[in-house]
Amino acid sequence: IAFLAKAAQSNRKAFSAHEALVDLVARTMLRDGRLVWKGLPLRAWIAPESEDPGRWKMCMPDVFSIRNSSVQSYLEPIVHEIKVSRADLLGDLKRPEKRQAYLELGGQCWYVLGRDAKDRPIAEPEEIPVEIGVMQVMADAIEILRPAPKKPMESLPFGIWMVLAKAVPIKVEDFADATVGGDQDGLPFRS
């Protein structure tokens, strides 16, 4: 029973750290005037490779956002995947099909890395594949360690439009304190 209680407490702590970082990224995207969704279930087409015929892959980015624009080519979809533990990150890095799905969904894809219990980074940018941008939590701000390559997207796939049409983007009012804060300069991302 003691082991189960300790495991439950550890899981709650990791979940709350993850959710806090998801909220920080979502608030930042809102502040930048983007339409933002958390935990949006999306389907991406994984292109054929060698003998693989290609397939659909379901995925759920922690934060998905688009620019608030009526012009398709200006939407600039961005995927943020939040990692607060090294074990979770390493597990994700072993799943290239998940990473490929995120790259298909967004013009940019980022890993946002938390810090461990001793306030050390859970990974170095060199450990993350180069097609993914890397951000690191530093106090209450997020520092850009390596920019995400931008992939031009002329339009969102029809399937994503259908999901977005049924989903409700988050709003500033969805947060308990109803603010979209940043660091002392008002800039939550630093490069």
Characterization of this structure:
A seven-stranded mixed β-sheet has the order 1-4-5-6-7-8-9. Strands 2-3 form a two-stranded antiparallel sheet. The protein contains four helices and nine strands; from the N terminus they run H-E-E-E-E-E-H-H-E-E-E-H-E. Mean pLDDT is 86; it is low at 179-187. The N and C termini lie far apart (46 Å). The protein has helices at residues 2-31, 86-93, 96-105, 158-166, and strands at 34-38, 42-46, 55-59, 63-67, 78-83, 108-113, 133-138, 141-146, 189-190. The protein is 30% helix and 24% strand. The protein is globular and about 50 Å long. By secondary structure, the chain is of the alpha/beta class.
